[in-house]
């Protein structure tokens, strides 16, 4: 009987303490310093309105009023850091070659028309700008705009070169970097711990485990950005009639576990920004902000800007 009372009191105390710290994490953790805060993030510069990852796309997004540019980086044969999503040039340029095997001056232009990855049967036709830009071009053109950098490959030299560019352009306070790979994120943090990092996929899974066991309020976190998909948008990417029963169940389960307002509120209270990607419809914008997301990543910067203005959602301070 005494053992049962002891166990019950211990569990009750743990649950109550966890619940309190989940709501008030600053009782245990100092809030991370936020050098910038983003509501409006342009995915690949806005791949639905201009050719992805081009200077034209970035300029348009900044002109619209985006808070952050999201882009992807690779390293060429002559060790230039270029802005491109794919390692292969096949999809975007129609050339059967890899960026890492070509010098920068040899890189072909983008095709005239590219598919929008997160929008089913949607294509974007570009204007005159079809050039694959250098990362330093972006830094030169937009010195005050935060940039979200996805390090696409596990390459020590790429990580080193990106860090050097960030430092050279005095952008450690305006940059977040990382990848879904935990190995890449660890290397980024080791190379330059002054540049904030995002959660890798394994760390997202670990985060969920901590959240659902009540341990999250007690655990320190080095990451400053949680960037996650909204699983329910799979029907915007794939034909819903072609989804199998198991795919529907997995999507529902992932969405239920991941899209948690209590989790997002806890993280933002600790100074960790929550970005949800890649959302291109108003109902998804609304759901993300209702859940407490700090920001939304979109292929359509103009559409998100109109939504924010019409709903009176202010720019972050």
From TrEMBL:
Domain of life of the source: Eukaryota
Compartment annotation: Membrane
Catalytic activity: 1-O-hexadecyl-sn-glycero-3-phosphocholine + H2O = 1-O-hexadecyl-sn-glycero-3-phosphate + choline + H(+); 1-O-(1Z-octadecenyl)-sn-glycero-3-phospho-N-hexadecanoyl-ethanolamine + H2O = 1-O-(1Z-octadecenyl)-sn-glycero-3-phosphate + N-hexadecanoylethanolamine + H(+); N-(5Z,8Z,11Z,14Z-eicosatetraenoyl)-1-(9Z-octadecenoyl)-sn-glycero-3-phosphoethanolamine + H2O = N-(5Z,8Z,11Z,14Z-eicosatetraenoyl)-ethanolamine + 1-(9Z-octadecenoyl)-sn-glycero-3-phosphate + H(+); N-hexadecanoyl-1-(9Z-octadecenoyl)-sn-glycero-3-phosphoethanolamine + H2O = N-hexadecanoylethanolamine + 1-(9Z-octadecenoyl)-sn-glycero-3-phosphate + H(+)
Any one GO MF annotation of this record: phosphoric diester hydrolase activity
Domain GP-PDE, residue spans: 38-308
Cellular component per GO, a single term: endoplasmic reticulum membrane
Major site of localization recorded for this protein: membrane
PANTHER family in the cross-refs: LYSOPHOSPHOLIPASE D GDPD1 (PTHR42758:SF1), PHOSPHATIDYLGLYCEROL PHOSPHOLIPASE C (PTHR42758)
Family membership noted in the UniProt record: Belongs to the glycerophosphoryl diester phosphodiesterase family.
Protein name, UniProt field: GP-PDE domain-containing protein
